[in-house]
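We emphasize that the prediction below concerns an isolated chain of 511 residues; any contacts that depend on oligomerization or on bound cofactors are therefore not represented. The input was used exactly as deposited, without trimming of termini.
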Amino acid sequence: MRKAAKFGLAFALLLLAPVGGAAQDRVQQLEDKIKSLEAQLTELKGMLMEQRDASAAKEAAAESAAPTEAAPPLTQLIGPGGTLQIGGDIRFRGLYIENMWDFDGDNASDSREVFRFRPRIFFDWNPNDSIEAYVRFTKEWFYGQDNEMPGFDVEGKDAMFDNAWVMTKDIFGTGVDLKVGRQDLIYGDGFVLLDGTPYDGSQTISFDAVKAIVNHEWGATDLIYAKLQENDFQASDDEDLYGIYNRWKFGNTGVEPYLLFRNKNQVSFAGFNPPSTFDPSPAEETILLGFRATHGFEVSPGVNLALAAEIGKEWGTVDFDTMSAMPAPLQFSRFPGADQVDRDAWGGQANAELTFNDVTWKPSLKVGFTYTTGDDPTTPDYEGWDDFYAQWPKYSELYVYSLYDGFKGRSGSNDPDIGVWGNMIIPEAMVTFHPTSQWTQSFRYLMYLADENTGPGGGDERGQNVQSLTNYVFTKNISGHILLEWFDPGDYYLNGADDAFFGRFQLMYTF
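Result of the prediction step, given as a token string:
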């Protein structure tokens, strides 16, 4: 192309210039200038190429010198592409609790100073792209002992596999995944499904379950079966969970309709002296139809709003027939002579969180409201909410101790609420900010009210709860927190009920 332009220019000059030697000299001069310009252009191009190569080499050197996050340890196993990932964590906690059961400052039996130590190690193996096997081994000590400490009523279990499952993906090309074995089941905010083992604290939360995951273009549908308790070979004393849980996503909106059924059977208590951690609830069969929705969007540049709401309707039966054989504080008879009654209950929660990403310390404000019905003992039905597997301290690490069925003997009163977070009206607010990239600070306020005035004090105000949570990340492997709580009992409890306090520090090392 350049030669054609050069000869075209020379030809034009020949046509325009007078014929003669002078004209030929001018043409030669122009050709020499063109060659000179081409040489300069080639030299400039070479200089630019050298600068580009030098810049690329400098960037590559900088990237190689920069620290990178360590990859998880992988051990090659037999089979094409088979790998084993090994990891775990070590958790140390110190706790102080005062008035956790009866809110009586003169009774020192419900004050605790506890140290907990829990190491865990997991093995996660993917022999190929469609199969995964996961095992997690754990053990927790209280006061450094191997067994339950007298009077604390939380058992330090023996070493165990708290997770042990196998998952097969896309079975026969159907888009269905199957997960079988001991596994964690966590849905939504944990309003009804999270903790399958509430009586060991936070040592484990797993379910012995089978879960089929049907994947489709807008999300997934989980089919769940879990065996919570196998007291003996007969089904009359078992506890089982069956469920269909949909997890759909449409843009920024999540939609989660679900249907759950659990049977919680009990054998006769006649002549039986249960341990302190035994769950002395009546036999129950509950059907729960629920719906959860989430939506998030940017209100303005740097300001995000996240919304979530969940509601459920429950039907079923509650059988008080065998409860009269229990010790008086554990009988849970809604009125003398109560037998099997129908359940008719409602529950739900909603929250909104506003986050300011471009403001110093990135503050966020979260407000929420929870409502679960309580039982009206003057009606033929039982209106109390069945909390299924939500008996974890999602609202308070302190107040939850006064709600566990197994601790009702300690409180000395026959609380008619069956379950932990039933008969509740809870407005709350929480503010969170990040003073540094490693430090997160939250302050939370909750007001607990009762749907039915069935407490020992006859009022509907359970009390007020103030919490402070400080999280700090020391390194990528070491983190910790300090949680402080204060609870001020209301007129739901006896006149003169004393304040309760809770404190915890934690150090966690992950590897």
